[in-house]
Write a structure and sequence with these properties.
The structure holds 2 protein chains of 2 kinds. Chain A contains 10 helices and 21 strands. By secondary structure, chain A is an alpha/beta fold. The longest helix of chain A is centred in the C-terminal third of the chain and has 20 residues. The two termini of chain A are 33 Å apart. Chain B is of the alpha/beta class. Chain B has 2 domains: 167 residues, no CATH class; 227 residues, Spore Coat Polysaccharide Biosynthesis Protein SpsA, Chain A. Chain B contains 15 helices and 8 strands. An 8-stranded mixed β-sheet of chain B has the order 3-2-1-4-7-6-8-5, with helices on both faces. In chain B, helix 2 crosses helix 11. Chain B is globular, with a radius of gyration of 22 Å. The chains are: A alpha/beta, B alpha/beta. At the A-B interface, strand 11, strand 13 and strand 14 of A face strand 3, helix 5 and helix 15 of B.
Chain lengths: 460, 440
């Protein structure tokens, strides 16, 4: 039995019949989504992460992904490293067919870990990646497109799939609008919001009772600016009473200034109390996940990633031909191809128009449609940014029903990019809505780019 | 009426064949007190006449800063701050609550901080600002007031006690007085919050009605306001800065009033006001011991201030004729000399002829009771903002002359305590080492 592999490289050259090669730019054109393993060659860390995210959010979310060189954090979301095609096949051959593709979107990260014989979900260190702030403390979840990881953890813990390890635990704060965690903390005047503040001690003269700023008092020959009494001893003649902050602009004086927080990702001005507090640490998988994909856990330990970075591969990479090793007997059934589009549940039919769709959302038939959309495996990914308001007011409002149930959202800087992947019927249903949103967004001066990708017919 | 009473009194003295020396001594009281009563009466009438022409301007809403020096009031401080936040006033109110010794008074500080956090997000929309300042080391009430003044930014400054409960219209009413640009400072009515607790608080309530509400209304209308109360003072910020705010030591309220009077002597168009409709409620001591301790401090401070600290202000060039004469008359003769005369009269006449002493005492009681009833009626009819309550209080009025008599005798103890023991240094208003470092 032969395996089919996908090599994603900057200079794709197909050498073998069972090996497809493509580049990152043409990923969306891939219509066949049943490869047994993927090898990412030659991309930098940022691009690698994007490709892995694409894989994990696709129908091939379970397949092993092998990288060509070790990166700081990529090892947490990849299955191993290979310098040559031989290494690649050797690493992936025990893995393929061990994976289980049938799983709820939310449970995929746990199934993924379970299938890799891992019983803990570790946090990672994430940094700025190509100008895109990576907000996730869990690269694996990020790669699976779990945006609101805080909620995800809550759900998983309450459902009994995860337990927090009592050992390592830290907390972090995120922006309530964009979930970014890069902030600028600054003080401002509580009255006029000016940041021009003057700090200093106030001094109480025991002789006359007045309060003066320490700047008015000579340090060499201290005396009261009001009563001119010479001070000899602190605590006997005078005392520092308070550290006060004075606004240079409006003159407001107070004990402590207001600290405001500027989110460096979405430029929102927030108060400290507005920030969302999250805990991150090591989460342990409970045995419950075995009920879903218990039989899929392959016994082999995950290949340990090599920590030594490998020099950049010389493009174009010509993967050497390696005879595929005989496939071991699968422990669990071979991943099924994507199920055919299920007919619309009767008696409810999909709405013909936008208005009808909205009506359906508003009323009791929505649940039926939700099931229908789930069955269509529609995935929405919108890359948005500079105003989170646009996301919330236009995109999310319109697509909320579907997004919450069948899609994943990625918010990144740049113009809004909506990528709809689904079957033709479903895309047709949503296209009117999408184009209407496009018109709305364009009218307020933002650019929206929409790609509709039919899983069966390539670019639509 | 007063003349008739005097005539009756003279007949009684003739009938009892009183020695001339005691007659003169008793007449001294009338000579000292009667002008004050008459001036209060005339002033109160003048106030009522002026009030009839008064039209409030709802659009006049100057910005206000309220300084609330707190110590160990706990829930009382919260009650005060809450009542300020919830004022019926559209202008900006900055409330500065300063907890003196926020370590030892952590409960008070925590209560206020908790309240601040609860209203933080709604404050700005209500045009309110609340600052809770914790002074780690206790440095006294004056330092808290001055710190509050330093931190304040608004046009009108209110200095309030932390155990006050502020009437919801107080700021709106009090600020109306500042429509007159010549008004520099003033005060309002203090009522007893725990009025019905004990007989002592009932007596104090009557005293506050007649002594503070009616008395200051009359004196304020004549431009000789005796004192801007420390528990409830209202100042124009610029003027307060010019006079140097509160001075170290005790009786800081009376001291500030005298310095303001000195300023008024230099700027004769400027005025102090008393507004009986700007109302605060304060907790009065509810036991006789606590009450006497309070009066020991209050009345002792009169001697400290008039005779020790500010004696050099009793000069017409410094305070002006009106205020020099009135302060000397009311402050020194009535409040310091008179108690000694009463004390001497009581001792000598009591020892000399007890039987006659009792008869004359009864006559004096009746005389003062009628005088009190006249003034209480005047207060109730013209000024009282809570007529039903004050009418009920009048039921206890027969005890009031006796209460006053005890207070006057206790004043002697207070003055002696100040004269020989420097009682002002033994005050709960500030730590001893700070009081001692003062100039007096």
């Amino acid at each position: 039995m032969s395996y089919t592999y996908l090599i994603i490289t900057e200079h794709p050259i197909s050498t073998e019949s069972h090996v497809d090669t493509t580049c990152k730019c043409h990923l969306h054109k891939i219509c066949k989504l049943d490869y047994d393993a993927i090898w990412i060659v030659g991309y930098d860390e940022c691009a690698t992460k994007e490709i892995i995210r694409w894989v994990r959010c696709s129908e091939m979310w379970y397949v092993p992904v092998i990288l060509s060189k070790c990166k700081m954090t990529s090892h947490m979301i990849a299955d191993g490293y290979a310098d040559s095609f031989g290494d690649f096949t050797r690493i992936v051959s025990p893995m393929v067919n061990q994976m289980h593709s049938k799983c709820d979107i939310e449970l995929r990260p746990i199934c993924y870990l379970s299938s890799r014989n891992q019983d803990v979900l570790n946090p990672g260190i994430q940094g700025d990646c190509c100008g895109i702030k990576n907000k996730s403390k869990y690269p694996l979840l990020d790669s699976f497109g779990i945006v609101n990881q805080y909620k995800w953890f809550e759900t998983m813990i309450s459902s009994g799939y995860l337990n927090m390890n009592s050992g390592f635990s830290k907390c972090y704060y995120t922006c309530p609008k964009c979930y970014g965690s890069a902030f600028n903390f600054a003080e401002k005047c509580s009255s006029c919001s000016s940041t021009r503040l003057k700090h200093g001690n106030l001094v109480h003269c025991f002789v006359c009772g007045t309060i003066n700023h320490e700047l008015l008092i000579s340090s060499t020959n201290p005396s009261c600016p009001s009563c001119k009494e010479k001070w000899k001893h602190r605590g006997v003649d005078y005392e520092y009473i308070l550290n006060a902050v004075e606004c240079i602009d409006c003159g407001t004086k107070t004990q402590c200034s207001e600290t405001y927080v500027e989110c460096l990702d979405c430029d929102s001005n927030l108060k400290e109390s507005d920030l969302l507090k999250h805990f991150y640490g090591v989460y342990e998988l409970t045995g419950k996940i075995a009920e879903i994909c218990g039989g899929c856990v392959h016994p082999q330990p995950k290949p340990i990633p090599r920590p030594i970075p490998i020099p950049t591969p010389k493009p174009p990479i010509k993967p050497p031909f390696v005879n595929p090793t005989p496939k071991p007997q699968p422990i669990c059934p071979k991943p099924q191809p994507r199920p055919p589009v299920r007919p619309i549940p009767t008696p409810v039919k999909p709405p013909e128009s936008v208005c009808e769709f909205e009506k359906c959302i508003s009323y009791e038939h929505f649940e039926d449609y939700k099931e229908y959309y789930k069955s269509c495996q529609i995935q929405f990914m919108h890359y948005s940014i500079d105003t989170a308001d646009i996301c919330s007011s236009l995109i999310e409002r319109a697509l909320m029903a579907a997004l919450n149930n069948v899609g994943n959202i990625f918010m990144n800087k740049g113009d809004i990019h909506v990528m709809m992947i689904g079957d033709k019927d479903a895309l047709h249903l949503f296209s009117d809505r999408i184009y209407r949103i496009q018109a709305e967004v364009t009218s307020i001066g933002h650019h929206i780019n929409i790609e509709l990708v039919d899983v069966n017919m390539n670019l639509w | 009426m007063v003349v008739t009473l005097l005539a009756v009194y003279a007949q009684i003295l003739v009938y009892l064949n009183m020695p001339i020396v005691f007659t003169l001594a008793f007449l001294m009281f009338l000579i000292i007190e009667l002008p004050i009563y008459i001036s209060v009466f005339v002033g109160a009438i003048a106030y009522v006449i002026n009030k009839m022409r008064y039209i409030p301007d709802a659009n006049f809403t100057p910005t206000v800063s309220c300084i609330v020096p707190c110590y160990s009031e706990k829930e009382g401080a919260l009650r005060c701050v809450k009542s300020l936040v919830e004022q019926n006033y559209t202008g900006n109110i900055q409330i500065i609550a300063i907890v003196d010794g926020s370590v030892q008074n952590k409960i008070t500080y925590d209560i206020l901080i908790q309240y601040l956090n609860s209203i933080k997000h709604t404050m700005k929309s209500q045009n309110r600002e609340l600052h809770v300042i914790g002074k780690v080391e206790r440095q006294g009430r004056v330092s808290s007031l001055n710190l509050g003044f330093y931190l304040s930014k608004n046009e009108i400054i209110f200095a309030l006690d932390a155990d006050n409960l502020i009437h919801e219209d107080m700021i709106a009413t009090a600020t109306q007085n500042f429509r007159d640009p010549d008004i520099v400072a003033g005060t309002g009515t203090l009522f007893v919050a725990n009025q019905n607790a004990t007989l002592v608080t009932i007596m104090q309530s009557i005293e506050y009605n007649v002594g503070i509400c009616l008395g200051r209304t009359g004196l304020g209308a004549l431009g000789v306001l005796n004192n801007i109360s420390g528990a409830f003072g209202i100042f124009r910020r610029a003027v307060l800065a010019e006079v140097g705010a509160w001075d170290a030591g005790t009786a800081e309220d009376l001291d500030l009033t005298m310095r303001l009077k000195k300023r008024i002597a230099l700027h004769p168009h400027e005025k102090l006001f008393f507004d009986p409709l700007a109302i605060c409620y304060t907790d009065a001591p509810d036991t006789l011991k606590m009450f006497l301790n309070q009066r020991l401090r209050w009345n002792g401070d009169l001697g400290y201030l008039y005779l020790r600290k500010r004696w050099n202000l009793f000069y017409y060039n410094l305070m002006g004729w009106k205020n020099t004469v009135y302060t000397a008359w009311y402050g020194i003769l009535h409040q310091i000399v008179c108690p000694f005369l009463i004390f001497a009269y009581t001792i000598f006449f009591g020892l000399w002829d007890t039987q006659r002493f009792i008869v004359v005492s009864l006559a004096v009681y009746v005389f003062y009771y009628i005088l009190f009833a006249i003034f209480y009626g005047l207060y109730w009819f013209m000024i009282s903002p809570r007529k039903a309550n004050d009418a009920w209080l009048f039921l206890f009025s027969p005890i009031y002359p006796i209460f006053t008599y005890i207070c006057r005798l206790w004043d002697v103890v207070a003055h002696l305590n100040e004269a020989f023991r420097k009682g002002h240094l033994d005050s709960s208003m500030a730590p001893k080492h700070i009081l001692k470092r003062g100039k007096f």
